[in-house]
Amino acid sequence: MAVFRSDPCGIICIIITYSAVFYADYVVIWHLVIPVMSNTLWGTFCVILFNLIVFLMTVSHLRAVLSDPGIVPLPKNGLDFSDLHAGRTIPNTKDGWSVCNKCETYRPPRAHHCRICRRCIRKMDHHCPWINNCVGELNQKYFIQFLFYVGMASCYATTMVVTSWVMDPNVTSTYKHTKLIHSVILIVECVLFGMFVIAIGCDQISSILGDETLVEQVKKEGIRREKKSMYSLLQEVFGRGHPLGWLCPLFTETLKERSSKQYIV
Fold this sequence. Notes:
Oligomer: single chain
Largest sheet: 2 strands, antiparallel
């Protein structure tokens, strides 16, 4: 099920993201590769490789934006929450299910309510404006893939800036100023986005391996689950496929997607 939030902040962040990506692609092709390596196979290879990274980054981002993060379905029939309206607390069930005061429905363990999405999200980590969606049980894989390819694109673009200037140090003075301005802007963009995705990426991996989402850390709910191996925890996010396929956004199946039907109320 495709979802899209009408959150102004999220929409602006998406526009900024794609503006930065298209600008980086423009600079790499027209100001770094073509003036220096247009007559070589190396130049062709550099353009194809960079655009492959951009393609994978775009696919993973769109999947993170449009994928259902793990929305807890609302009950088809109304439930009696008169005790809740009267101010009395409804205790959690023995298997960890709880009641959401805002959705007025039961939610599975580790699900939390997002005030922006206005729904409960299974294994919610946080709401990210850069994907205009929650990072939850079913789209965390795509979010991490997006971070990975943004980091790769930043490193590759920075390398291309250095390579271009080293291969053509005697660029004409007329074009030199234009190339210098684009190079500086691209380097600043790569550093900012690169540092951002490294910080968020490390936090995501730490949350997965620690089996504790950001929301759970903030609420200090603690880890009360059976301890699992690192590989099993990674499989819960990326699926049972070969680890080499975990970074391909074209693969969709995860362990949680197979078991999502068990949460239908």
